[in-house]
Backbone:
């Protein structure tokens, strides 16, 4: 299951579906919003201005959008982890589910040449695109690694900060994501995550719809559950803050289905003592 009582699909089926969906988005060389349901035309890319507008609604500035090469922003987020991470020069940043490299390339500018950014993604097509984008801007302090975010291909006590943008909801074993993030963080390291949370039980028609797994709805966990997983992993200073102003953005993910009544974008923050 991807969340308690939410899906009859097993872990392998969910991962295969997510990998295929996002691989197709990357291969399309642009992208559809992560949070549109996976209908037969789900991966037909919108025009670039629509992708940029989605990113602006998620909290990215015009300067941030202008700082990355075309194709790095695929419109796949539900917030802006850059705004909460408070990255400093020389820090090591890990991005969970790095996609085409959008957040990694922005983080690379913040940590500078003395810092390092590691993006992890399980999709070969996304990794290829991310590496091409990094090469286009000469981002020598960024690398991208193939892996699942539940089992990061990164050593213990490596990162000062871990970021992620609308990815953890797609993972069946979220508790393991937070356990491995704790392992990879240095003491005093922090999480700065944008994701979706469940605000009310999904009605049967939404909970049983497999297209809404890739659509960032079915996999959303309640705030209290996320807080519990983080605490069990060992984190302190835990804050999960839903964003009331995300309703309009979320409504566009599945028009007419009122998913905005059940999930919200949220900021997830915590620190490794």
Residues:
């Amino acid at each position: 299951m991807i969340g308690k009582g939410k899906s009859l699909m097993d872990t392998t089926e969910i991962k295969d579906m997510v990998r295929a969906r996002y691989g197709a988005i990357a291969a399309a060389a642009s992208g559809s919003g992560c949070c549109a349901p996976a209908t037969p035309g789900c991966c037909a890319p919108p025009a670039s201005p629509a992708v940029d507008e989605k990113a602006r609604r998620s909290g990215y500035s015009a300067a941030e959008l202008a700082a990355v090469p075309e194709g790095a922003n695929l419109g796949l987020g539900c917030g802006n982890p850059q705004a909460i991470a408070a990255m400093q020069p020389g820090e090591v940043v890990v991005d969970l589910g790095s996609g085409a490299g959008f957040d990694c390339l922005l983080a690379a500018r913040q940590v500078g040449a003395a810092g390092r950014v590691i993006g992890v993604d399980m999709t070969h097509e996304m990794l290829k695109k991310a590496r091409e984008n990094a090469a286009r801007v000469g981002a020598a302090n960024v690398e991208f690694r193939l892996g699942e975010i539940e089992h990061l291909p990164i050593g213990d006590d490596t990162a000062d900060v871990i970021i992620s943008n609308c990815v953890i909801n797609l993972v069946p074993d979220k508790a393991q994501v937070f356990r491995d993030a704790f392992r990879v963080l240095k003491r005093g390291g922090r999480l700065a995550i944008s994701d979706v949370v469940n605000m009310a039980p999904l009605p049967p028609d939404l909970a049983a719809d497999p297209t809404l797994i890739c659509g960032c709805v079915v996999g959303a966990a309640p705030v209290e559950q996320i807080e519990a997983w983080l605490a069990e992993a060992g984190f302190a200073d835990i804050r999960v803050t839903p964003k009331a102003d995300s309703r309009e953005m979320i409504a566009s993910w599945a028009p007419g289905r009122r998913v905005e009544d059940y999930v919200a974008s949220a900021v997830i923050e915590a620190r490794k003592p």
